Amino acid sequence: MSRSLLLLVAGALIGFLATTPTVSHADYVQESASACVADDGDDYFSSNGRLRNASSTSNLSVACGFPSQTGIRHDSVTFLSVDVYDQSSSASVIAFACITDFNGFSHSCGSSTSTGSSFTGVTSLFPSRSAWSGAGSDYGYIQLTLPPGASALHGFYGSN
Predict the structure, then answer these.
(1) What is the extent of the structural domain holding 123?
(2) Confidence of residue 7 (pLDDT cuts 50, 70, 90)
(3) Hey, which of 33, 55, 123, 141 would disulfide with 43, CB 3.0 to 4.6 Å?
(4) pTM for the whole structure
């Protein structure tokens, strides 16, 4: 009888474990534009965690390193949002997700996304993460072009 009871308890335990949903969680990274850098020769202004193009005539090039960590690496990101303010009614804010090879000899980017030349206001851009896929030993970053006229980068968010 004790063997039958043991088999019954073992069967019930296996059934319980097989039907119990697993708990999953997403890791994320959220960074303000203050963690990003602009080309040294460009005219820019940084305040309140934003990075703004201060030129009225030239684009501003900005790069933001993606902080790959144990819980979330750039090659495991399934959602990427770049928050921007487009002040130009004739040019676009453009964003790419890129990698630099671990040896530093080359880089590549996924497809760009932009605000569109007639859009003005605050929005989120969702650049293709295709360059990050399978590139775990490389360095992920976000590359942006901010048009003249006070356009700004607010920050970015990535999750897996």
Answers:
(1) 26-159
(2) very low
(3) 55
(4) 0.80
Q: Which of 38, 30, 44 is nearest to 144 (CA)?
A: 38
DSSP E strands: which ranges in the chain?
A: 28-32, 37-38, 44-47, 50-53, 60-65, 79-86, 94-100, 107-109, 113-114, 121-125, 139-146, 152-159
What CATH code is carried by the domain that includes residue 81?
Answer: 2.60.120.260
95 within some domain: yes
Q: Where are the alpha helices (DSSP H) in the chain?
A: 2-19
With b meaning 16 or more CB within 10 Å and e meaning fewer, what string describes 119-147? Answer: eeeeeebebbbebbeebeebbbbbbbbbb
Pairwise pLDDT comparison (27 vs 70), residue with the higher score: 27
Tens digit of each residue's pLDDT (9 = 90 or more) over 20-38: 455 555 788 899 998 899 9
Q: What is the C-alpha to C-alpha distance for residues 66 and 100, in angstroms, rounded to an integer? A: 11
Report pLDDT for 11: 52
